[in-house]
Design brief:
Elements (H helix, E strand, L loop, with lengths): L6 H10 L5 H9 L5 H4 L2 H10 L15 H12 L8 H13 L8 H9 L11 E2 L6 E2 L13 E2 L13 E2 L4 H4 L4 E2 L4 E4 L8 E2 L6 H9 L8 H7 L15 H8 L3 H7 E11 L5 E9 L1 E2 L8 E2 L2
Length: 302
């Protein structure tokens, strides 16, 4: 039936849909039939991915990507997600962050130029990291698979109840969002040792950073190293009044998973460059549990 209408009408409708409303553009494009590729070119979808801070995984090749299919799939799977850190809210937040960059062109070639610059801080001095990193909660169960870990917290649900949260892997929009604004092709996660440099030629994503951290959660660290980590947190809040509390705390910390149980991940912060010129990001932490005399488990801090 739509074939009866002139293509100019479709252009008019498209122009009346706000640019920030990616979901409606996708839905409209999908009902246009054979006119879809005329009204919405491949270049349009390529730019849309840049505009909305979305990209492919590190193991995919840009040369083989159909950005139209990428957008269609991600909106179909996650565009109507009701989670406060995903769906349309995540798209709009990404859009606002990308707009702050005042990029000359929101195209893949220009994005490649941005990614080649090792120092994100050179981009007008503005560097932000995705707020999703302040809303991830790890399972207490050792050796949890990446697809079953990294619970995306919901406001109002107790953070110690992962069953009331949702694994990051179930949220493609969150996973495929840029980890930093401006995007970077590599990121050195400092503060905690042993985490490999995160690399993605198309722009490091939230999933890239998450899996790099998650891969180290169950590795046993030395007491010396874990003691060093305490320099980056307010560990006194995790102690009661006993003189030997610090020893007891260190006895509870055998792995990074144990560490994150006491000190929740509270975001990433740009910290300049390392000696190789790779953008460096430091962890932020919040003390969420304290030791209680005689209790087998630490107490959640209200």
């Amino acid at each position: 039936m739509l074939d009866r209408f002139p293509v100019e009408l479709f252009y008019m409708i498209k122009d009346h849909i706000p640019e920030v409303d990616l979901r409606t553009h996708v839905c409209f494009a999908q009902v246009l039939g054979c006119a879809s590729k005329t009204v919405y070119t491949d270049a349009y979808w390529e730019r849309a991915c840049v505009r909305f801070g979305l990209t492919i995984s590190s193991d995919e090749d840009v040369a083989n990507v159909s950005w139209r299919d990428f957008v269609y799939d991600i909106i179909r799977r996650d565009g109507f997600c009701a989670h406060p850190h995903c769906g349309v809210r995540r798209l709009e937040q990404n859009y606002r962050e990308m707009n702050k960059l005042y990029m000359k062109e929101y195209t893949r070639p220009y994005l490649a130029h941005v990614l080649e610059g090792a120092n994100p801080g050179a981009f007008g001095g503005y560097v932000a990291t995705n707020i999703l990193f302040a809303n991830l909660n790890f399972s207490q169960e050792p050796h949890t698979l990446p697809i079953e870990d990294g619970f995306l917290h919901t406001h109002g649900a107790p953070r110690e109840q992962p069953e009331r949260s949702s694994p990051l892997s179930r949220h493609p929009i969150a996973c495929q969002s840029f980890a930093t604004f401006p995007p970077t092709g590599s990121a050195h996660l400092s503060t905690l040792s042993g985490i490999p440099i995160v690399r993605n030629a198309s722009g490091v994503t939230v999933w890239d950073v998450y899996t790099a951290v998650q891969s180290r959660l169950d590795a046993t660290d030395s007491v010396y190293r874990l003691n060093e980590y305490l320099r980056f947190v307010d560990y006194r809040k995790a102690l009661s009044n006993r003189v030997d509390d610090i020893t007891e705390l260190l006895n509870r910390l055998n792995t990074l998973r144990d560490f994150f149980h006491f000190f929740r991940w509270e975001g990433l912060y740009y910290a300049g460059q390392d000696t190789e010129g790779v953008a460096r990001f430091a962890f932020g932490f919040k003390t969420v549990r304290r030791l209680i005399r005689g209790a087998p488990e630490p107490q959640l801090i209200a």
